[in-house]
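FYI - complex with zinc ion, inputs then prediction.
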Amino acid sequence: MDLNLEAAFDEPVDLSHEFEIPAGRLERPELVSLSKVSFTGRLERADLGFLLEGRLAFSGVVGCARCLAPVPFVRKEEVSWTFMPAHEKPLEKVKAEKPRADKPRAAKPAGKTAKAGKGAEKDDEDGDELSVKDLDIVYYDDFVVPFDPLIEEQLQLELPMKELCRADCRGLCPQCGADRNAAPCDCAPPPDERWKTLKTILETDDKN
Ligand SMILES: [Zn+2]
Ligand SMILES: [Zn+2]
């Protein structure tokens, strides 16, 4: 789905869409399955560009980080993006920018961008404040911005990390692979790595 920013030029536009994103595309090995991702929100004009605020809802199944058992999850998240014309992009950021924000740049009718910035010639010298605020800013050269990459990026942030089937999951035995939740195995406990590290530190200290 593409966002047409220009549609919100005069008045806000309500949007809703269901994205079908194959779990494999997100390159998260622990992700077993992912439902449709529904977005509802509102696109409106902001100071220098446009603001899109809304809510993402999705669910799915991930593998337990310790024993790989399937763990279902449900997510409902508030999301927002600020769209700014490319000429508002702070110069020092251009080189460091990741490819994602540059993506909409593929189509490049240069003349169009000036229009969105008009009427707000505010000096953009925020200097050091760029960091956090800047994360959700999408710079555009064209009023038509592909929405799917933004949704996928958001999913990467919001998919569960290291989910456990239960807090005290015993996990798989690193030696024989048995599920230790089902039954203890007979493997000897591995040597404690912490002592090894301490030993190395002590030995290094001795040499100095
Ligand atoms: Zn588990
Ligand atoms: Zn074992």
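Residues 172-208 form one domain. The pocket of zinc ion (ligand 1) is lined by residues 64, 66-67, 69, 164-165, 169 (CB under 6 Å).
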